[in-house]
């Protein structure tokens, strides 16, 4: 059955392959025009690309806040009022990447040190013979 399916797929691919040099040139021109149209789409439709960029930015912001809430729930962090949607806090797209990275570091660090070791605890208690 697999061989039959593979044969049908190869037959369909062979039907679309050009059979002469003239058809080959037509295929290359068509592909070239399609690539050119895709590359210059935003030049021709600037308003559309701007609105799509705004929507994509809003979706990315929502995904960022959603992922942060899931992360906080997974690590058991206390719930914080993040604001953002009501204008109290800017969207992530309005924050510089470096400040977002620093904010993440500050949030994951504990409020006070949990290190209970003293210097004496860290020093080795015994050294073998010949150790200086």
UniProtKB/TrEMBL annotation:
Residues 78-132 are annotated as: Disordered. This is DUF5330 domain-containing protein. It holds the Pfam family DUF5330. It comes from Dichotomicrobium thermohalophilum. Residues 97-106 have a biased composition (Basic and acidic residues). It comes from the Bacteria.
